[in-house]
């Protein structure tokens, strides 16, 4: 199953990208905390994008980066990624609330480092689970793999919803505490949590970029190109695919835990089939084989939804979520028609095409004005 | 540039421009507290305009709670139109304030709900939030409201919304207007006892509401000595009901259903097809015309506890809620052309509380003071307050304010709801 | 153990053992709930009814996938559209329609519903799929387009029809109450016979279409080997359009015959589509008879399973089946599957 071209950016481009991202994140956060001239972040965007949105973009970016590693580079389709996300969220929720309410390990469960331990525990649990189901499932290819992951995702979602005593059933688990470092530094209000989430997101992006440009990444790309050829060339395809599945599951679990401490409530609905599909859409819109595409795809989808939600109500009086959904569906279709490689790739191509067009125009101009000897050389390429 | 990029870029530009231009609003400063022009003085006494109040209203218009959210949104639109027509409310010091009701949609998704709530609180600077047609959404918003110290009224049924999960006490900033399933269960126990049954079968929809119905009903009925012969859930969208086979095989003598239409109607039809004579008792989610129209003939003989608002005209004049019933049902049927919806009534009651609170606020308070004042008003002044759902009595220990007496027992006879008082059982 | 799992014969043996074990489990669980044979029979019959709808949806999936390689996530929405359009036409109060008697109105509603949905399917293909394929979009992009279409269609349905459930009278009585057949303790509604009859007619019609008409044969050729079909002069884009139109028609037929039995709502398509898809997988996504059998089997298993355990676990049962099939026999149970599991 073809999953599109892969973008290989030079290390220079990647480093520049990271620096730009860090600067942007810090600038926005500083703006909100310091508020020079009484100006707040919301005034810049007219209230269309809020910190709540930025944090959610950060959390989803983490998941989608993992998904991109799996789908874009290794070429393995996952329509159940939201279930891994959910495992992390529920594990964190259960460890930090039920433990206290049932007085398990009373001293440890109330300390500040307990939620962090739960996050790591969730990652380990989810990674282990991914390993167990990955071994049989990764033998499948293409559509069949997609459907197997879909099935696993829905089974997990149903377990979340039915496990009344452990998972709180349809109402979920509420009252999840906020994260804190040490006894004093609470990672709340929202501006502080924003820094945490984006710090983790940037870290994950750096790690992912490193994976892509490493020996493991090359092995993945070989598998994506042709698994048979990769096998023949000595790549241990089973182990590589499994490794990347486990990594992407752990990343998703991390994001899920961050979500749990942000929302203070985990209910089953954000972890179902629709959520998995949305994640794949975000990945595809950004560009499946591009880590930066993950960031862009998530941001694009969120900003579009937020803008639509904020503006649709003005444009069409009485519009509720339904009008926004039509626009959202149409936009998805349009993007996939015109930029099936994802927006990042599409924009890059437009930019390069524009640059080349300009070069050709200048060269053509130069040609007519230049001395005859250049005419002998064929400049068309 | 080739044609495809051209088309795409131009499409994007047009879309982007449209969205940006539609958003280009010069932030309007709050209306200056100035006197109206002298030309009006002959007709009206001089009215001072104070700062506008905003109320954030967000039911679940789409998604799983849409059946409850749409009528609630209709009611918000009715009230918003009323406020616009009258120009706002007048405070105790004679200063008039515009009241704007911001209407949004939680999409029955907790993530969206929290985003919307935060937007209302931080960006729109509302004085109160009324939102959440179903319980998990309300729980999520309750957390946000508690932290931001904004009064929040939920339109969902579970008592867990107003209760702090760790301490078991009332959350100071959270209230609710919808009847609880616990009160429904009290009636169900009485009726089942009057029927002389000994074993009960439960069918409930696989949502938070359905499970809460089951938990409350089964707890109350088991405590009263009834045996649980069978219990199972069904999806709102189910077309087959294998559970009915289970009910048949279990041999119970009364069935308790906890669901809203259309699921409740479909389950009723399936039950009636298999067992034409078994008594079936419902919860308060089916107190709408939709239940009868969807269930058709099978609805006859169904019994459920409802607020008498569904038969507003037939309520005796000395009933404490008669005026509220008439006002609500007239406004609702006029605006929507559809029969009255008890869920819409929750919107009516909650906005009524907030507007009542706003009418007592003097001019010149800061936003934080306004919010605290509204919260205090609701906690202390909602006493013997007639609403569509019942007569409310809010205290610091009870942010729910209703008891089982807010219900009347109804039966469906020949396609309409008929009161079925205890004397006739 | 690995050796057994490796060989096809070994895997089939494991599968048979698993099925027997499952049946024993079902009987045990049913025993705990006092199920007698009449209860199982009732569950099975109801399951076949639901399964027939899954079969129709599955056929739609197979048609589109075999011709274009796309998994059409909007398939469930075609069912919803068929049901809703039927409702709207039947209840439409137009002067031109009032002289018609109810049976004629029903017929008109059914025909218009199927025609309308087919048109929508064709439009979807022309305006969303065709431009993308022209630009040689990868299959993932095409799948996402169908996802976008699902979202948009559902939102438009919400605007037009709102959240309320609608009703269509039963075909037999043309009233809300349907005729109920009672065989002993078994209850079968007349609408079920309509459903089975319609499915049978559709299957026969499809078989004739595939065997006797040029277009049908061309579609089958695409299913067997897309590239070879193209080389033989079959126009792939026209086949794609035909496939979508046919799948939409199949879905609409399922929707309009299901509408009197349930109460159509705007979001009924999602789960139906997913389960129909599982049914299609049972036939390996490439076999028509496999899809039908898969649908019926799925319906029965789901219903019986839900009856003996708890309805909340219905989804788990269906999707565990899916995963097990994919793991042990991805080519499906019946026929088809000429294309290798790994697609180059």
Describe what this molecule looks like in 3D.
The complex is a heterotrimer of chains A (381), B (425) and C (344). Chain A is an all-alpha fold. Chain A has one domain. Chain A contains 16 helices and four strands. Chain A has a two-stranded antiparallel sheet. Chain A has a two-stranded antiparallel sheet with strand order 2-3. In chain A, helix 1 (11-34) packs antiparallel against helix 9, helix 4 (81-101) runs parallel beside helix 7 (142-162) and helix 14 packs across helix 15. With 425 residues, chain B is an alpha/beta fold. Chain B contains twelve helices and 17 strands. Chain B has helices at 3-23, 66-86, 110-123, 135-148, 181-195, 208-223, 242-250, 263-274, 289-295, 322-336, 342-358, 367-381; strands at residues 48-49, 53-58, 89-90, 95-97, 99-103, 128-131, 152-154, 174-176, 199-205, 227-234, 254-258, 280-282, 303-306, 383-386, 391-393, 408-413, 416-419. In chain B, the strands form five sheets. A five-stranded parallel beta sheet of chain B has the order 5-2-6-7-8, sandwiched between helices. The radius of gyration of chain B is 24 Å and the shape is globular. Residues 21-44 of chain B have low confidence and may be disordered. Chain C has one domain (35-328): ABC transporter involved in vitamin B12 uptake, BtuC (Orthogonal Bundle), CATH 1.10.3470. Chain C has 344 residues and is an all-alpha fold. Chain C has a two-stranded antiparallel ribbon. Chain C starts with a helix and ends in a 16-residue tail after the last helix. The longest helix of chain C is centred in the middle third of the chain and has 33 residues, at 102-134. Chains in contact: A-B, A-C, B-C.
